[in-house]
Write a structure and sequence with these properties.
The protein is of the alpha/beta class. It contains eight helices and seven strands, in the order βαβαβαβαβαβαααβ. A seven-stranded parallel beta sheet has the order 3-2-1-4-5-6-7, sandwiched between helices. Helix 2 links the parallel strand 2 and strand 3. Helix 1 packs across helix 8 and helix 6 crosses helix 7. The structure holds NADPH dihydro-nicotinamide-adenine-dinucleotide phosphate (NDP).
Amino acid sequence: MEHAGKHALVTGGGTGIGKGIAVALAEAGAEVTITGRRADTLAEVAALHPRLHALVMDVDDETSVRDGIAKAAAARGPVQICVANAGIAENSPFETTTLDTWRRTMSTNLDGVFLTFQAAMATLGPQDNGRMIVISSIAGVRGLKNAIPYTVTKHAVIGLIRGLSEEFMRRPITFNALCPGYVDTAIVRNQLLGLMRRFGVDEQGAIDMIAKGNRHRRLLEVDETTGAAMWLCSDAARSVNGQTIQISGGQV
Ligand code: NDP
């Protein structure tokens, strides 16, 4: 119960990586606000634990984020743990990537993190401890072909946490990024379908294609990102600040 009495907020907490972290934080005692655009998905996850609280919030919409986080803080206190996890991934070659795709990806994966962190930090007093975590990607530390907007946003959020770790040096808040390789969630399942269609391979063939950079030749499981996030939230990680942690089976 290390996090008893704390309020945590996880964007995209109704599915995949965010859901894993949200449930673990609730089990560790935190009151956890989980956000996303789908009320039904959030309600199903909130039913899993009495300390999980659903909040419909679209990170593409400034008012939705600012009002949503202020409302959650009014109900459950300052957001001492904030996991900016909501994100989208669209694949296309650079030449055919549209400006719409570029802007949509920037809006969700970059502007959404900026707004989430700013609104969450506005709930903290000068002495409050804080853990700000962004879910970047292995695409935040290396190039990923056919996913240029995604790669750019995942690099950019690393710049964000590095800058914030300098700007808030005197405050007891840490800013870190997790950089997973391919994790078995909806985002990756969608990519597998695309590969199966494009290359005429079965599901295992598609998994083999995207997992070939992982030295263990497999997709990561959600509990692996959960474990890293829980460590960053722990007291033991209080001096880990401005860092990127790769969880990728050694993929470089
Ligand atoms: P999911 O598709 O399961 O999760 C994405 C989440 O983001 C959903 O819960 C979705 O909720 C939410 N979301 C998307 N757009 C918005 C929006 N505009 N406003 C609010 N919420 C939004 O996939 P993952 O769990 O895999 O992805 C989580 C994060 O992890 C993403 O940032 C992704 O880039 C990153 N990541 C994933 C990897 C992987 O291999 N799976 C690898 C590296 C990083 P809803 O649709 O209800 O709004």
